[in-house]
Design a protein that fits this description.
By secondary structure, the chain is of the alpha+beta class. It has helices at residues 10-22, 41-46, 65-76, 87-116, 123-139, 153-167, 176-188, 192-212, and strands at 2-5, 27-30, 54-57, 60-63. Helix 1 (10-22) runs parallel beside helix 3 (65-76), helix 4 packs antiparallel against helix 5 (123-139) and helix 4 packs parallel to helix 6 (153-167). It is globular and about 50 Å long.
Length: 213
């Protein structure tokens, strides 16, 4: 299975983690977005949105990380522990995945990406970051994992996102439930070492960008 990715992106790192959980071997093809490799015609033929991550599974092309995550589990998972078949349990997992995509990950990108482009931090956008973290903290009240009492694909996706916050040195200390969940998940999540490799690359990239500023 071809996997077009950037280790800097939380969305790509979540796929690597799920791949480890499922015992999959990817043919990893790294795309350098800074060099606009995602805009090359050969990649556009696969993905007209030019988006990462993208997979090609025996000719089947798919992008958008949460769609990929659930596809891989449904096709290659040995059971439904990561993505429950029970309609209500699955609905909660889906809600958390959509929350990550539309609220949490979006807030992170909207606030921090402009700063990498040498723009001043926007305090109004930081309020969105705090709001998103507040929501997640509330989801975790009395819960061991983000979608209930067992580890699911929702934890994988949100773990990849939150770990990126740690690289930009965001103080999570006032979000006790997130801190507790993060400490546990970073120990038990399948494929965590894959995420750590990407985080190291992300840290190096950010430091290089800051030196240029």
């Amino acid at each position: 299975m071809d996997f077009y990715y950037s280790p800097l992106a939380a969305t790509c790192r979540s796929i690597l983690m799920i791949g480890k959980a499922l015992g999959l071997e990817f043919n990893k093809i790294e795309i350098n977005v800074a060099k606009e490799e995602h805009l090359k015609p050969e990649f556009a033929k696969l993905n007209p949105e030019h988006a990462l991550p993208t997979i090609v599974d025996n000719g089947f092309v798919l992008w958008e990380s949460r769609a990929i995550l659930t596809y891989l589990i449904e096709k290659y998972g040995k059971d439904d522990s990561l993505y429950p078949k029970d309609p209500q349990k699955r609905a909660i997992v889906n809600q958390r995945l959509f929350f990550d995509m539309g609220t949490l990950y979006k807030a992170l990108g909207d606030y921090y990406t402009p700063q990498l482009q040498k723009k001043a931090a926007d305090p109004e956008l930081f309020k969105k970051v705090e709001e998103a973290l507040g929501f997640l903290n509330a989801f975790l009240e009395g819960q061991k994992y983000v979608a209930g009492d067992s580890f699911t694909v929702a934890d994988t996706a949100i773990l990849a996102t939150i770990s990126s916050f740690t690289i930009v040195k965001l103080d999570l200390s006032k979000y006790a439930n997130i801190v507790r969940w993060y400490d546990n998940c970073s120990k038990v999540a399948p494929g965590w070492e894959e995420n750590e490799k990407g985080l190291a690359a992300l840290k190096g990239f950010i430091e290089a960008m800051q030196k240029k500023a």
